[in-house]
Specification:
It is a single chain. Helices cover 70% and strands 0% of the residues. With 213 residues, the chain is mostly helical. The chain folds into two domains: 77 residues, lambda repressor-like DNA-binding domains (434 Repressor (Amino-terminal Domain), Orthogonal Bundle); 115 residues, no CATH class.
Length: 213
């Protein structure tokens, strides 16, 4: 006599149900509001069906309201998310979104630093055109020393940021700690770029003998 198949679950529908509840509550939508939105998008569904999807017994497919492919697409449209994204748990999507934001922040910071470097170069060129100041060897050496000191500060800030990232991944640091560490290097970088722009804009000082030739 063949043995009946044992019920198996990979928790996909449980994850989806948890995610639906997470996205709905995050937007402060009622069951009725989500049902109305899905219906307007072409996927008719009752608020009671959404309640049964979210509140069904976990792991017991006999009690949880099953979700059709059409309903999955309707939910994705309602939440403005890719369908496959809805299969990710709320916990995982939180980490994923944070990493996406951090990557976006890093890219924007690089772009901002590039714009700042162009701005600083223009300022240095204006200073050169509007003043008749002579940058002697001692003055240039002082600027280079300031730049080297700032470079050390920047390296230390980057080390602190990397350490904070590791602490965050180990759940020992908060998102705010991570943002503070990420922001710390920006003003230092801006100062270094300004000094580099000044050094690029100013000619090398001539020795007295060279100037007379």
């Amino acid at each position: 006599m063949a043995r009946p198949n044992q019920p198996r679950s990979i928790r996909v529908e449980d994850n989806l149900a948890e995610r639906i509840a997470y996205e709905r509550q995050r937007r402060e939508w009622s069951y009725e509001a989500l049902a109305t939105r899905m219906t307007e998008l072409g996927c008719a569904i009752h608020a009671s069906a959404l309640f049964k999807i979210e509140k069904g017994t976990k792991g017991d497919s006999g009690k949880r309201r099953r979700i059709t492919v059409d309903e999955l697409m309707g939910l994705a449209l309602a939440f403005d998310l890719p369908p496959e994204n809805l299969l990710i748990t709320p916990e995982a999507v939180g980490d994923l979104r944070l990493r996406e934001l951090l990557d976006e922040a890093r890219r924007e910071r690089i772009q901002l630093q590039y714009i700042e470097s162009k701005y600083n170069l223009k300022i240095a060129q204006i200073v050169r055109l509007c003043t008749d100041e002579t940058y002697g060897p001692a003055r240039l050496e002082n600027i280079r020393a300031q730049r080297d000191d700032l470079a050390k500060e920047l390296a230390e800030a980057d080390e602190r940021y990397q350490a904070t990232v590791e602490r965050f991944e180990d759940n020992e640091a908060s998102e705010n700690d991570l943002q503070v560490a990420a922001d710390a290097s920006s003003p230092i970088t801006g100062k270094i770029q300004f000094l580099d722009a000044v050094l690029d804009a100013m000619p090398e000082p001539q020795e007295a003998g060279e100037a007379d030739e």
